């Protein structure tokens, strides 16, 4: 079964890398790409074929990995060749209803929203599918996106906008927090290298502990916080400056923008 990527940018490359690491044959992966820089990178680093056309055999899978403003043209160019293909879209903000329309009423479509950590197979991908798709095709989509991390299936496509705001934009907020910790560490006497090592490990270990813990996040916070201790003083400053409210407002702003993009 051939997996065809239309578009060979960062998300496509992340998924291809994940597929290869999960024992998918390079011979079964093909990319349609016209950018010389991306072509060179895909061929040299991933070792899969690249050209300006795709294999449209009946059982092949098509992954739409172009920019959102290009997807309409791509769909209209392939719709007469679509038969029983599984179409997976990773284009942000483009609803399945529009893809269906541009493909001439074709409904065998899965919409996916991966995030940046897919680059190291530690991502989280939200998936949505309409009721017309077969269970076998749904499983194929699930396996492909599992190659870059965890997957979560949504029962409502409107939730994709919330996913975009939380796990799609969320890494940027985490990176900003890490950056702030590193700068703070340097200001109180640590070297850049020391502050980086401590900050990365703190974030990584805390996330793993939270994910695998059976108690609430509030209990974890209490476990770190001693009465009259250092953590208590730090948390007081965060609370006084509405830390949680700031994150909430950032997420809501990203969500509102995601809805705007989807409605255009």
Number of strands: 8
- Which range does the strand content fall in? 5-15%
**What distance lies between the first and last C-alpha atoms, to the nearest angstrom?**
35 Å
CATH class of the largest domain: Alpha Beta
**Uncertain stretches:** none
| Tally of helical runs | 11
Q: Summarize model confidence as the mean pLDDT.
A: 93
User: Into which percent range does the helicity of residues fall?
Assistant: 40-55%
CATH H-tier superfamily of the largest domain: NAD(P)-binding Rossmann-like Domain
State the order of secondary-structure elements, H for helix, E for strand: EHEHEEHEHEEHEHHHHHH
At the fold tier of CATH, the topology name of the largest domain is: Rossmann fold
Q: Spatial order of the strands in the main sheet?
A: 3-2-1-4-5-6-7-8
Number of domains: 2
CATH architecture of the largest domain: 3-Layer(aba) Sandwich
Describe the structure.
This protein folds into 2 domains: 3-158, 3-Layer(aba) Sandwich (Rossmann fold); 170-263, Orthogonal Bundle (ProC C-terminal domain-like fold). It contains 11 helices and 8 strands. It has helices at residues 10-21, 36-46, 71-78, 96-102, 135-146, 159-168, 170-187, 192-212, 217-224, 230-240, 243-263, and strands at residues 3-6, 29-32, 49-51, 61-64, 86-89, 109-113, 123-129, 149-153. Strand 1 (3-6), helix 1 and strand 2 (29-32) form a beta-alpha-beta unit. Helix 7 crosses helix 8.
């Amino acid at each position: 079964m051939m997996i065809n990527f239309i578009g060979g940018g960062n998300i496509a490359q992340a998924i291809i890398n994940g597929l290869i690491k999960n024992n998918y044959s390079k011979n079964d992966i093909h990319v349609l790409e016209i950018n010389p820089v991306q072509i060179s990178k895909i061929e040299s680093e991933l070792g899969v074929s690249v050209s300006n056309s795709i294999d449209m055999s009946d059982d092949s899978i098509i992954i739409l990995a172009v920019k959102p403003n290009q997807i309409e043209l791509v769909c209209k160019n392939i719709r007469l060749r679509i038969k029983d293909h599984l179409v997976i879209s990773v284009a942000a903000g483009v609803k399945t209803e529009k893809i269906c329309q541009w493909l001439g009423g074709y409904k065998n479509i899965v919409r996916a929203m991966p995030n940046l950590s897919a680059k190291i197979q530690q991502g989280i991908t939200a998936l949505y599918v309409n009721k017309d798709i077969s269970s076998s095709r749904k499983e194929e989509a699930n396996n492909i996106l599992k190659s870059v991390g965890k997957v979560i299936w949504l029962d409502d496509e409107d939730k994709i906008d919330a996913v975009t705001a939380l796990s799609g934009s969320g890494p940027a907020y985490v990176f900003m927090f890490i950056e702030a910790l590193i700068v703070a560490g340097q200001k109180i006497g640590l070297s850049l290298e020391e502050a980086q090592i401590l900050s990365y490990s703190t974030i990584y270990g805390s996330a793993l502990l939270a994910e695998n813990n059976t108690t609430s996040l509030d209990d974890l916070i209490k476990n770190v916080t001693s009465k009259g201790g250092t953590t208590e003083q730090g948390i007081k400053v965060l609370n006084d400056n509405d830390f949680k409210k700031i994150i909430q407002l950032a997420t809501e702003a990203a969500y509102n923008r995601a809805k705007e993009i989807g409605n255009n």
